[in-house]
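Data availability (excerpt). All sequences and predicted token strings are deposited with the supplementary files. A representative entry, CstA N-terminal domain-containing protein, is shown inline so that the format can be inspected without opening the archive.
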Amino acid sequence: MPSWMYFVLALAGLLAGYCVYGAIVEKVFGPDPNRPTPACKMPDGVDYVEMSPTKVFLIQLLNIAGLGPVFGPILGALYGPIALLWVVIGCVFAGAVHDYFSGMLSVRYNGKSVPDIVGYNLGDLIKKLMRVFAVVLLILVGVVFVAGPAGLLSQLTGMHSMLFVAIIFAYYFLATILPVDKIIGRVYPFFAVLLVFMAVGLLGALAFKGYTFYSNIEWTMHSPSGLPAWPLVFITIACGACSGFHATQSPLMARCINNEKHGRKIFYGAMIAEGVIGLIWVTLGMSFYSDTAALAAALGPKGNAALVVNNISVELLGVFGGALAVLGVVVLPVTSGDTAFRAARLTIADAIGYDQRPHKNRLMIAVPLFVVGVALNFIPFGMLWRYFGFANQALAAIMLWAAAAYLLHRGKFHWIASVPACFMTAVSAVYICFEKTMGFGMSYELSNIVGIAIALICFALLLTAGRKVQPTDDLSV
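Structure token line:
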């Protein structure tokens, strides 16, 4: 079989996942096209703003597609073909399910943020913990998504990266406090054009210039720098397969969707689209370089994925086309970083019941958030990314447990959420047990035992305690 067929099969798997498994997930949840959505019944002109399904889909895609589906797959390509499998399987059975429920449960809960979604289904204590956890993660995301694009723009122009840091922070601040349809609703569709050019243009150039897809592919797992594929590959490739950050973003669009029947297209579909982006960058990482050793050499000792993005883009599309492609990559984190800070503002506002219609009320929350964000920007990027990686996948697991509990409480087929929740819990727990710098530094064998045990205990708690809980009416909370 020609090596390029692996890409075709992987792409077909993602599309089939949307058409078949996405329809199953939708049927299990049971959207009601006659139920008024938050945007229709409680518009405020700031965050609850009704928009067309196409526009909401584009905004959702750009909200969730940060550096993850580019940097993560490039680094994940070091592990070999398992990266391809995880993008497809993880996206269809975990990531898209996670995104669908985080969006549709927010719709059912009047546009509430992820801490409230989790609290309604897993208890008040978890809700309080999640409020702190979610805000910390969102600030980390916002800061991480300043440093990455600033570095790329610095490489592209030769100007100092701190200049771009200041410009990006200024844009983030405006996008955080202005009504959702003033900047985000107007410019994101144009950004989407750059995104499509970046992905399709680079893949087409790879084929046109005669590169061999997946050159020297070996169906074995690699361990770059001695790091095990399990669980590292599932932490590294986050946004391209499954990402808890998306649970903080979906409620933003849950406040703008005008009919529940569009949920699969907007939430499940946007994750599949991001999976395609991740698939393209895994392919570029495994095909542009002769083998994983060459890719590792290009990344350098610090894993500089931004440098690889720039090299691939310029080599395949020339200086001008490469510059446009790099700008397309810059768009991804910038359009997620701004909504990260916006989601942090809304999460805090929901927690304290602070009306966000007055300008001064938005400023009262946004200003302290950005003071913290600017201060964190001086912490080394590598350290921030490690903390983000663990927190991101841990949040994905928690959101999936909340979705499983929601279904279990209503006597529905909870396995579509509980199985990926168990898997992502094991991934997060094994990682934090094994990680030497920020974790507990346990041996690999003990980390696996402890992590898998934690996942099974969570699963048992869901099945025993979850059946005793009576569901609350979705519209009463």
